[in-house]
Amino acid sequence: MAQVEIEIGGRRHELTCRDGEEDRLRLLGRLVDAKIGDVSRAIGKASEARELLLTALLLADELDEARNAAAKGRIEEAQRITAMERCAEKLESIAMRLEKPGENA
């Protein structure tokens, strides 16, 4: 296990993570620290607990929006595939009619 030190809201925290995950944990720490900085600037003086709560809610909101966007993208992709399949079926039908002798005269 690896030890990582991150700083969030001006406080240093020692965390343990799996070997090789140190950079990822540092990145996540920087993201949380930036978001808590945004919250602190927006609401002014507040308790650390309140800042952390609002930061967690903002991050949860961003995650929810990202999940919804991903789901919408999957739905749109499925609709495009369905439309392409219908087009392919129509093309196959047309091709079959054109291939039948004596019917295209």
Automatic annotation (TrEMBL):
Coiled coil: none annotated. Keywords: Cell cycle, Cell division. The keyword Phosphoprotein does not apply. Pfam families: ZapA (PF05164). GO terms for biological process: cell division. This is Cell division protein ZapA.
